[in-house]
Each structure stands twice: as structure tokens, then as C-alpha cells.
Q: What sequence folds into this?
């Protein structure tokens, strides 16, 4: 039975086939490597002049037009490149963008590129496929947003401010190892996506090192963290400190998981939903919120549906405003900060401020499980449906406030609300005990 390879024709045949296949694969790899390229960004580093920022932006836009499938664009380490924004990239695929250096966008708002009076984003990608945004260490993108922030900035620019990274109508996107600092407006806005993972990344939008969200810091309006719409999204192991929604699920979204998030801002948020949009199958879990302004935040601005939602194992330490809010969007869409859109941000502190829940907005099957709120600073929460369209099937399972000074400020228009597992306090419009969904 001690055959040698040459004595067995079938093994000899297989061996020849394997060698031939190997040769073909090597040849293919050589040809593929010849077609692919690593592009070192050829901009002018370490020069903050406006003239150089314009040159760098033109070079970068031109470089993106030359990328082909399999290519990699590298911003070299230990180099800082100043840009003016208006980087627009269309229809690239199978590309890696490596931020080993630093990108800083100009703080000269007068020269920011515009189209029909609207500012362009810092970075805009449209209809891209299988693209990785990464760094060999931690890549820094700095929007120098301070000049766009504050009461004066909001009065001058309102919401005509650039987002740091906008990705539209794309699929199979990976973002990792990036640090987004001081975005003028929303930081990362990825919409119409199918297949997205963001991991090991950080967002910081703060005006100073204050350990919390005072009025001065909160005036960095609209500095959302990761905003997403679409499907099949996984964001994990990320840190966000900002002055608006830390993570926000926008309309027409499904099948999203957010886990192991450290967040402090205006909430782990779904909304604001309107225009008849539907959001379903969303999970936030295993997250920590240090001195956040809002905590769990679900909001409607108009008609729509939010259903099949789970928040699980979320801990908040000294939340400053509402740890739990399920109801209308508490926001202002004008320079009148107390305007109800549909719920005033001045409510309930300012007399005559209104808070209105849209009548044709539906919450269905919402579960909060293993939520711990430690030493809330002000209030407990708001749970507000509409009289004509009450919240359906909401379960609080082991939702525990430690050292709470009050009950829920509002609990109204809830159909089938259940509190169990030692939930404290029990919202007054809930029943105690098992729910039909357990």
C-alpha cells in the first residue's frame, strides 16, 4: 500500500492540475496588482494658508476621479492637509481610503464653496460600493466647527452649515479607526445605505472641557453624531460626545444594531420621524451614557411608524434632562428657540410653551430592558402618545432609577403599557406585571 505519487496516475493528474491552477492564480495576481494602485495624496502638507487649502481640495477632487476598483488612497502619516470642503466623489467601488495623516477644513466661512447659496459638505460621497474608510492608527478629521456654532453662528447660518461626512445611496461601507472633531453641522450622515459597519471610531463636538452639557456647549446646535437611514447597519465600539443626537436613526430604516456605545449628548435616538416614514427592527444595547443631556430618545415630528424597538442594558450616570423620552420631537426649526416643532425645547419650563404629539404617529412594540439610571439631575421621563393614536405595546422590564426625585413627568395615551422585573418608578399609565409579549 506504499504507493509513490508517480505510481498513481490519478495523483499525478491532480498534481498537474493544481500546479496549472496555481500558475494561473499567480498570473492573475500579477495582472491584478498591475491594474491596482496605491495613491499617496500629493497635496501640500502642513500649510494652513487659504490658498493652499483651495489647492489641496482641487488636487483631492482630481485624485478621486482617478481611483479605480482595487485602488487605495493614502493620506500620509505625520502630515496635515488643510482643505476648503466641497470634496465630491461619485460612483467609486472596491476602494480603500486610508487616513494616516490629518485633514483640517478651513474656518474661513466666507470662502466656503456653495451651490445656489447652499454650502457644500466637507466630504460628499454618492452611490459608492464596497468602500473602506480607515486608518493604520487613528485618522483625524477636524471641521473647526467652532466658527459655525453658538447663538450668533446659528442666527447667521441657521442650518446652512456643512456636514463632515455625507454618504448617499451606497452599499457595503466600512468606517473604522477615525476621529471626527468639531463638525460644523451633523458629523456623519449616511442615508439610503444597504450594508454599513462603523467601528472603533470617535466623535467629539464640544466647546470646552466641561464635564456635561451646559448652555454654552449646547449652543453648538445640530452637531449630531452618527445619523443613518437605510438597512443592515451595525455601529459598535464607538464613542460620541456632542450637543445633539449622539446616534440617530432617520426615516425609512430597518434592521439596525448599535452596541457598546459610549455616548453623551441628546440621546440614543430614533427620529425625528415624519412624512409617513417607517422605522422597524432597531436595537440599542450594552451602552453607557455619562452625564448625557437626554438618554433614550424616540421622537416624531409628523406622521409615521416606529415599531419593534429594543433598548437593552443601557446605563446612564447623572443624566441632565430627560433620561427617557418617548413622544414628539422636542426641537426648534427656526431662530425662535421656543417654537414648538412640534414640542418646544422650552417646555415645560417656560409658561405657554407647547408640546404637541402628532396625531397620526404610531409607536408599536417598544421594549426597554435592563435600563439603569443613576442620580438623574432633573426629571425622570416623558411617555406621550396622542389621544387619537395611543402608544401600543410598550414594555419596561427592569427599568430602574436610582435616587430619582420624581415620577415620570408625563405618561399619557398609552395602550398596553407594562412594567415588570422591579421597574422603579412605574409609569402611572402602565400596568404592573407580565405583558402579552413577555
A:
Amino acid at each position: 500500500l506504499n504507493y509513490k505519487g508517480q505510481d498513481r496516475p490519478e495523483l499525478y493528474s491532480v498534481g498537474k492540475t493544481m500546479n496549472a491552477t496555481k500558475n494561473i492564480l499567480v498570473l492573475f495576481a500579477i495582472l491584478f496588482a498591475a491594474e491596482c494602485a496605491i495613491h499617496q495624496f500629493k497635496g501640500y502638507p502642513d500649510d494652513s494658508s487659504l490658498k493652499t487649502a483651495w489647492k489641496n481640495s482641487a488636487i483631492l477632487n482630481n485624485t478621486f476621479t482617478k481611483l479605480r476598483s482595487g485602488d487605495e488612497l493614502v493620506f500620509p502619516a505625520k502630515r496635515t492637509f488643510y482643505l476648503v470642503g466641497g470634496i465630491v466623489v461619485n460612483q467609486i467601488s472596491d476602494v480603500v481610503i486610508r487616513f494616516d495623516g490629518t485633514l483640517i477644513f478651513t474656518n474661513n466661512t466666507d470662502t466656503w464653496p456653495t451651490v445656489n447659496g447652499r454650502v457644500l459638505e466637507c466630504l460628499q460621497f454618492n452611490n459608492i460600493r464596497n468602500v473602506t474608510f480607515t486608518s493604520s492608527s487613528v485618522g483625524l478629521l477636524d471641521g473647526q466647527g467652532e466658527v459655525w456654532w453658538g447663538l450668533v453662528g446659528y442666527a447667521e447660518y441657521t442650518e446652512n452649515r456643512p456636514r463632515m461626512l455625507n454618504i448617499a445611496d451606497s452599499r457595503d461601507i466600512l468606517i473604522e479607526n477615525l476621529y471626527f472633531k468639531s463638525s460644523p453641522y451633523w458629523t456623519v450622515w449616511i442615508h439610503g445605505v444597504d450594508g454599513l459597519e462603523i467601528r472603533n471610531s470617535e466623535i467629539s463636538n464640544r466647546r470646552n472641557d466641561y464635564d456635561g452639557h451646559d448652555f454654552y456647549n449646547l449652543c453648538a446646535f445640530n452637531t449630531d453624531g452618527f445619523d443613518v437611514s437605510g438597512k443592515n447597519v451595525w455601529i459598535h465600539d464607538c464613542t460620541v460626545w456632542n450637543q445633539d443626537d449622539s446616534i440617530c436613526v432617520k426615516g425609512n430604516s430597518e434592521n439596525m444594531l448599535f452596541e457598546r456605545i459610549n455616548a453623551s449628548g441628546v440621546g440614543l435616538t430614533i427620529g425625528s420621524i415624519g412624512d409617513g416614514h417607517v422605522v422597524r427592527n432597531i436595537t440599542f444595547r450594552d451602552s453607557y451614557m455619562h452625564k448625557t443631556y437626554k438618554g433614550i430618545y424616540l421622537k416624531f415630528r409628523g406622521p409615521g411608524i416606529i415599531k419593534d424597538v429594543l433598548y437593552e442594558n443601557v446605563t446612564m450616570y447623572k443624566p441632565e434632562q430627560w433620561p427617557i423620552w418617548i413622544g414628539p420631537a422636542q426641537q426648534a426649526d427656526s431662530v425662535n428657540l421656543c417654537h414648538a416643532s412640534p414640542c418646544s425645547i422650552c417646555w415645560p419650563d417656560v409658561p405657554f410653551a407647547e408640546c404637541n404629539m402628532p396625531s397620526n404617529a404610531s409607536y408599536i412594540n417598544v421594549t426597554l430592558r435592563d435600563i439603569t439610571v443613576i442620580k438623574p439631575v432633573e426629571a425622570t421621563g416623558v411617555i406621550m402618545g396622542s389621544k387619537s393614536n395611543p402608544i401600543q405595546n410598550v414594555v419596561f422590564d427592569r427599568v430602574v432609577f436610582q435616587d430619582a426625585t420624581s415620577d415620570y413627568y408625563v405618561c399619557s395615551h398609552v395602550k398596553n403599557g407594562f412594567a415588570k422585573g422591579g421597574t422603579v418608578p412605574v409609569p402611572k399609565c402602565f400596568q404592573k406585571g407580565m405583558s402579552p409579549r413577555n
Summary: DSSP finds four helices and 30 strands in the chain. The first strand starts at residue 38 and ends at 40.
